[in-house]
Specification:
The protein is mainly alpha-helical and 153 residues long. Helix 2 packs across helix 5 and helix 3 packs across helix 4. The protein is built from six helices and two strands; from the N terminus they run H-H-H-H-E-E-H-H. The radius of gyration is 19 Å and the shape is globular. A hairpin with a 7-residue loop joins strand 1 and strand 2. A two-stranded antiparallel sheet has the order 1-2.
Length: 153
């Protein structure tokens, strides 16, 4: 591997990291006015999509440790955004669903997220956006291959 190649991908990796951190920080600041964060919206969106979810389903979906999801759900529940409901058929099973307030927070945060995305990407042409999507898609495919390789070892 040449030194030039190493420097090139290192700069790109650093740029991706910086973009990820800055964009999340900026969007979190904007969404704070709606009582939300990116992490909370991701969890709540997953719950809304399925209507209800178990903690284990969420942990698996996001690749988090069960304890991390439990703590996140505890916080959402404390803030009145979700509720735990006991399964009538199996009292050991608890489903998590959105409260009316949780649905409202999701609804009011969506336009903020969309507006932020539009403002962020307006500095790129349609062609550049398509190129970026294609390049990131290829990197995501490679990540999947590398993840699969880690499972085989």
């Amino acid at each position: 591997m040449s030194t030039t190649f190493t420097n090139d991908y290192t700069k790109a990796a650093e740029a991706l990291r910086d973009f990820y951190v800055r964009s999340h920080r900026a969007l979190d600041k904007l969404m704070a006015g709606q009582g939300a964060t990116i992490a909370r919206i991701k969890i709540m969106s997953c719950i809304q999509r399925d209507g209800k979810a178990r903690s284990t389903d969420l942990a698996e979906a996001f690749g988090f440790a069960p304890r991390t999801i439990t703590e996140a759900i505890d916080g959402l529940e404390r803030d009145g955004l979700v509720e735990r409901i006991t399964d009538a058929a199996d009292r050991r099973v608890k489903y998590i669903s959105l409260t009316e307030l949780g649905k409202e927070v999701l609804s009011t945060s969506e336009p903020v997220r969309k507006r932020f995305g539009a403002q962020l990407f307006e500095v790129l042409s349609e062609k550049e956006i398509a190129q970026l999507a294609e390049l990131l898609g290829r990197l995501n495919e490679r990540l999947l291959e590398l993840e699969d390789g880690c499972r085989d070892e």
